Amino acid sequence: MNLNLSVSQVSVLGKRKNAAVIKYKNDIILIAGLLILTAALFLILRFTGKTGRYVQVTVDQQVMSVYPLDQDREEKIVTDESTGEYNLLIIKDGEARVTEATCPDKICVHHQPVSKAGETIVCLPHKLVVTVVSGETREQTAALKAPGRAEETQKEPGKAEDAP
Ligand SMILES: [Zn+2]
Fold it and tell me: What is the pTM (predicted TM-score) of this model?
């Protein structure tokens, strides 16, 4: 209402004001565009931020891999190269689950699919842990993957004193 009134008022005032009307229209397009952009950004942040969109796989406390939860995939995780023990990890529809495993108890296979940050599937015989992590903690897992960590874990605090 208010808008229509002011536009017609300006039109009556002549050519000089027409430029102002066009500018006004452009502003509306700009504002509408910004609103759509903000809404899109909000949705993106909402779905990628806090819901936990990565699956971190550790074997014997070593981070083996991190997979995005929003990409369907099938990964055979060999937990013991010499015996060929493995767990089959399936990521589908934003959920991760273990569908197959060579472990004796099959607890990991019977575990419900995980999708929220902090949820885990554990395979005790294989020392395998599948954890859903949020986007923010992804950098932390990347840091864990960095070389040097393996050396650190092998050092025991008591034995450090042996060095001269
Ligand atoms: Zn298992």
Answer: 0.55
